[in-house]
UniProtKB/TrEMBL annotation, chain A:
It is found in: Cell membrane. It is a multi-pass membrane protein. Belongs to the binding-protein-dependent transport system permease family. CysTW subfamily. Keywords: Cell membrane, Membrane, Transmembrane, Transmembrane helix, Transport. The chain crosses the membrane at residues 16-38, 74-94, 101-126, 155-176, 205-226, 253-274. This is ABC transporter permease. Residues 68-274 form the ABC transmembrane type-1 domain. Gene3D superfamilies: MetI-like (1.10.3720.10). It comes from Tianweitania aestuarii.
From TrEMBL, chain B:
Keywords: Cell inner membrane, Cell membrane, Membrane, Transmembrane, Transmembrane helix, Transport. Residues 62-250 form the ABC transmembrane type-1 domain. The chain crosses the membrane at residues 12-31, 68-88, 100-121, 133-153, 174-197, 231-253. It is found in: Cell inner membrane; Cell membrane. It is a multi-pass membrane protein. Belongs to the binding-protein-dependent transport system permease family. This is ABC transporter permease. CDD domains: TM_PBP2. It comes from Tianweitania aestuarii. InterPro entries: MetI-like, MetI-like_sf.
Amino acid sequence: MKPGFFEADGRRMSRGAILLLMAPFFALIFFAFIYPLGSLLSLSVLEPSPTLGNYERVLENPLYATVLFRTLRIALLVSLLSLALSLPVAILMANSRGPKAVFLTACVLLPFWSSVLVRTAAWAILLQRNGLVNDFLQGIGITSEPLRLLYTQGAVVIAMTHVLMPFMVLPIYGALRNIPSDYNRASAICGAGPLRTFWEVTLPLAMPGIIGGFILVFLTALGYFITPSLLGSPQEMMIATLISQQMRENLDWPFAAALVGVLTLLVTIITIAFSKVFRFERMLGASA
Amino acid sequence: MNPRAIILNAYVYAVLIFILLPILVILPMAFSETTYLTFPPEGMTLRWFEDFFGNSRWMAATWFSVKIAALTAITTAVIGTMATYALVRGAKAMGTLFQAFLIGPIVVPHIALAVALYLFFQNTGLSGTVFGYVAAHSIIAMPFTVFTVAAALSSVDPALEDAAMSCGANRFNAFRLVTLPIILPNVISGALFAFIISFDEPVIAFFLAGIRDKTLPRMMFDDIEQNLTPIIPAIAVMLTLLSIVVLLAAGLLKYVANRNAARVEQS
């Protein structure tokens, strides 16, 4: 957050007025966030006995450790794939003007604001046995009979990349738009070609946006529930599906709470470590 | 165009096909006569829309979601604007705490929030209630509203309010008559985004659903998981139209906001 975003001058309000205006916000956050999450996490260390037993189970049982590592691997893969697809789109968006810029922005924003469930259903239709992707693969002779594409890790990675890509495009685009065009000219005057200018001027200046987008996609992917639950294989589940299963089917609330604890801890550490590049107001502003 | 630009453009258009393909494939299926989902769709019918509007369970879920989304939009607009105004006009010191609480609910994975609320609402009997959903959706939609409002508020010259107060208005009237009309387009566009976020929210809705009261996303999840009927493409058509309308409305509001700002500058 840039200093001064929430600051302004003007006549001061009284302390009472400020508290009165802020009270509903803090009450809501306490009621629907702090208290529920706090009591869930306390369950993980207090039940069935006040120990770290639930957390030991997560890390020591190979079944659960596998889920955790698979989740990390898929989230990393999705982030890398999103970056590879998003960077060129963001570059073209930042360099376009007029109708082309509007068209590119609309192409990125329309899926961003359309339902995650609709997009997940669309991938289920595309990847089914007699779906378009299988038709295409058979048509160009890669395979002679339909492949099993749905309910695999590949399906999860592709659909999640599709759903989360806009979170990568928008921060990178925001960072690129903030680079004054003089810099490119200055670099050219000093004798650098376009490629060298890109590597030595544009890329370093866009780095906060790239890292911010990457971390945002990675964190969202870590806890993603809908797409892996609908398109993934039950034998290769991710942590969010495991949490849901422990909570709703096995009714093992303290263990589910420990899984939530591991996930929340991971996400919090990464967020704090990268808090300098996290400019949420810019990311949300770019999307809105 | 030089070769490098051609390669960049070609790559980007290939990526755009990837981005748009799923939506372009699912939308025409809403009009297909077949009961299974196949591409290209066969025939032309409005039967799936009739099925949707004629089915009391889908209709009940839709109205339930509309009610929750509308209340979420109002709640975040009112509470978010109040807190943001207090912060910008005097509570600088609380900025860090406010920001941490604001961003917390969207940084913490939705699954963690959903499970925590599931447990809390089970124990308090709030599962499946409108109040429970609105509280949960409000905290995840809040940042979008607050940042939209804060962006507008920080560009309003505080001298305008000071002038109103010098002329005898109290703080509330100065806000209501001077500042609010200037920031109103942003408040409404923040509320619109909160509406869409709530209306589309699948994860919390998945856990909080009672036996009777399900939101539209929860009904869609069940349908996709069980048999994926052509009702889903029909809903996709309507949701996509809704998103387009909201985006256009937000764009229009942004235009109005810029014009307002320019007018204030001049005067």
